[in-house]
C-alpha cells in the first residue's frame, strides 16, 4: 500500500471533490480509497507514505493529441525561406523532419518527450506518429519508449499519400501490425488507433484501403480535420462534400475515433460528430502558432461533442495548453467570460473520457477503483483554496514546474523532482546526438 497525503486533495470526483488535508491510498495499480491524512495513516500504518508537504494532490494529466516525433524540431534552423502559410509549415518543416527519421530516432524522440511528460505530471498520452522512410516497426519503437517511461500511451501511424502509394500502404500495414501486436501483448498501458494525416493528403483509393484494413475492428481512427481552411476547400473541390461527411462515408467516425482540430467545420459537420459520438481534440497553442484560426469550442461543447485538449507536439505541458486554451477562447470570441467552464471540462473531464475509450481502465479521478495516476504539485495557495476555485489557482498560479511527484499506474516515476525510472541526462545526451544527424539529413 502507498499513501500520498498531507496536501489539498483535488479528486475531480463530484461526490467528494475536495479534502483540505487529504490522502489517497494506492493498492497496486489502482486507487483504494481517499480520506483525511490522519485517518488514512491510522488505517494503513505500515504503508509507504509520500508527503505532499501542504501542496496539491491531483489526478495525473491526460494529453488527447500529441506528436512525439516533433521533439527533434526544438531549436532547429529550418533551411530555406520561411513559411508564409500553414501549407508552407507542413512542407518546409514537418514533412521534411518526419522523412529524416530512422527507427532509432523514433525511439529517442519519443523517450525524450516522455521524460518531459513525467516532469509535467502527464500520465496518459495519445500519440500520432509519422516517419515515412522508417515505417515498419516505428510504432513498436514508440511503445518501447512508453513502457520504459511508465506512461500510458496510445499511438498510431499517420497514413498519407503525400509520399506515394507504396509508403501509404506501408502505413496501413504498420497500423494493423501494431494493433495486432498490442492485442497479443494485452498490456493495459499500451494501445493503438489507426492513424491518418488529413483529407487533402488522402485519396478515396487510400481511404477505401484503410476501411478494408479496419473491417471488424473497434480501435477507431485518429486524424487531423479542417486544421487549415484549405483542407475544407480541397475536399469541396475534389469530392463535393465537407470533410466530416467524407470521412463518415468511409467509416472513420465513431466513439473510438479522434478528429483533431476541427477548426473550420460547419454546423452540419458538428451535428454529424455528435450523432456518431466522435471525439474532437483541441490544440490551442499549435493553432495559434500555425496561424490557422481558433476552433469554436463553445459551439462544439454546446453541441454535445466530447471535446478534449491536446498539445499537437508543441509541448508535453497540459497546464500550458490549459492556459493557452483559456486565453485563445476569450480572444477569439472577444468575450472575457469565455473558456471558464469549457477548458476545465476539456482537460479534467473529457480527456479522461477520450482516454477511457482507448484503455481498459477508469481515469481522471482520485476515487476507489480508478487507475493510480497521481501527481503532487508544490503549490502553496496565497488565497483561499477549495473545490470551487481550484481551476483558477491552476490557471493563474501553478505551472508544470510545480509538479514534484508523478505516479502512473501505481508506479512512482518522479519524486521530489527526481526521475526514478529514467536517466534524463543520458537520454538527452543521446537525443542530441540523434538530432544532429536528423538535422544534417534535412
How would you sum up this structure, described in words?
This protein is of the alpha/beta class. Helices cover 40% and strands 20% of the residues. It has helices spanning 37-43, 86-97, 103-119, 138-149, 165-185, 204-213, 229-239, 243-249, 267-276, 284-289, 297-302, 318-333, 342-356, 390-396, 424-441; strands at 2-10, 18-27, 30-36, 48-51, 56-59, 61-66, 122-127, 152-155, 190-192, 194-196, 221-225, 258-261, 279-282, 307-309, 374-377, 403-408, 411-415, 418-419. A hairpin with a 2-residue loop joins strand 16 (403-408) and strand 17 (411-415). The protein starts with a strand and ends with a helix. The model has no long low-confidence stretch (mean pLDDT 97). GO terms for molecular function: hydrolase activity, acting on carbon-nitrogen (but not peptide) bonds. InterPro entries: Amidohydro-rel, Aminohydrolase_SsnA, Metal-dep_hydrolase_composite, Metal_Hydrolase, MTA/SAH_deaminase.
Offer a few descriptive terms:
9-stranded mixed sheet, single chain, 5-stranded parallel sheet, alpha/beta, 442 residues
Compact description:
This protein has 442 residues and is an alpha/beta fold. It is built from 15 helices and 18 strands.
Amino acid at each position: 500500500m502507498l499513501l500520498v497525503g498531507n496536501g489539498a486533495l483535488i479528486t475531480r470526483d463530484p461526490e467528494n471533490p475536495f479534502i483540505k488535508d487529504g490522502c489517497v491510498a494506492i493498492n497496486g495499480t489502482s486507487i483504494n480509497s481517499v480520506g483525511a491524512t490522519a485517518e488514512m495513516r491510522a488505517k494503513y500504518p505500515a504503508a509507504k507514505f509520500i508527503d505532499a508537504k501542504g501542496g496539491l494532490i491531483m489526478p495525473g494529466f491526460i494529453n488527447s493529441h500529441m506528436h512525439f516525433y516533433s521533439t527533434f524540431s526544438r531549436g532547429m534552423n529550418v533551411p530555406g525561406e520561411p513559411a508564409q502559410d500553414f501549407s508552407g509549415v507542413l512542407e518546409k518543416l514537418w514533412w521534411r523532419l518526419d522523412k529524416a527519421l530512422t527507427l532509432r530516432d523514433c525511439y529517442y524522440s519519443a523517450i525524450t518527450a516522455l521524460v518531459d511528460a513525467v516532469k509535467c505530471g502527464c500520465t496518459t498520452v495519445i500519440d500520432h506518429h509519422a516517419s515515412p522512410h522508417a515505417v515498419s516497426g516505428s510504432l513498436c519503437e514508440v511503445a518501447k519508449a512508453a513502457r520504459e517511461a511508465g506512461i500510458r500511451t496510445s499511438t498510431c501511424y499517420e497514413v498519407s499519400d503525400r509520399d506515394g502509394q507504396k509508403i501509404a500502404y506501408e502505413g496501413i500495414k504498420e497500423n494493423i501490425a501494431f494493433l495486432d501486436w498490442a492485442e497479443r501483448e494485452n498490456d493495459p498501458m499500451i494501445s493503438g488507433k489507426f492513424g491518418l494525416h488529413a483529407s487533402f493528403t488522402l485519396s478515396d483509393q487510400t481511404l477505401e484501403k484503410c476501411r478494408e484494413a479496419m473491417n471488424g475492428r473497434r480501435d477507431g481512427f485518429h486524424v487531423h480535420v479542417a486544421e487549415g481552411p484549405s483542407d475544407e476547400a480541397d475536399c469541396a473541390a475534389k469530392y463535393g462534400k465537407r470533410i466530416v461527411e467524407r470521412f463518415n462515408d468511409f467509416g472513420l467516425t465513431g466513439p473510438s475515433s479522434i478528429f483533431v482540430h476541427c477548426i473550420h467545420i460547419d454546423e452540419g459537420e458538428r451535428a454529424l460528430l455528435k450523432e456518431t459520438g466522435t471525439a474532437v481534440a483541441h490544440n490551442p497553442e499549435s493553432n495559434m502558432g500555425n496561424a490557422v484560426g481558433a476552433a469554436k469550442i463553445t459551439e462544439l461543447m454546446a453541441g454535445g461533442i466530447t471535446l478534449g485538449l491536446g498539445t499537437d507536439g508543441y509541448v508535453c505541458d497540459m497546464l500550458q495548453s490549459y492556459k493557452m486554451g483559456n486565453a485563445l477562447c476569450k480572444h477569439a470570441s472577444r468575450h472575457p467570460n469565455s473558456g471558464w467552464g469549457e477548458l476545465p471540462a476539456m482537460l479534467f473531464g473529457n480527456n479522461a473520457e477520450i482516454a477511457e475509450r482507448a484503455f481498459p481502465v477508469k481515469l481522471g479521478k482520485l476515487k476507489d477503483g480508478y487507475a493510480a495516476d497521481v501527481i503532487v504539485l508544490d503549490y502553496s495557495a496565497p488565497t483561499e483554496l477549495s473545490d470551487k476555485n481550484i481551476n483558477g489557482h491552476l490557471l493563474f498560479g501553478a505551472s508544470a514546474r510545480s509538479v514534484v511527484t508523478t505516479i502512473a499506474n501505481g508506479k512512482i516515476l518522479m519524486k521530489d523532482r527526481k526521475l526514478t525510472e529514467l536517466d534524463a541526462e543520458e537520454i538527452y545526451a543521446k537525443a542530441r546526438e540523434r538530432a544532429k544527424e536528423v538535422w544534417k539529413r534535412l
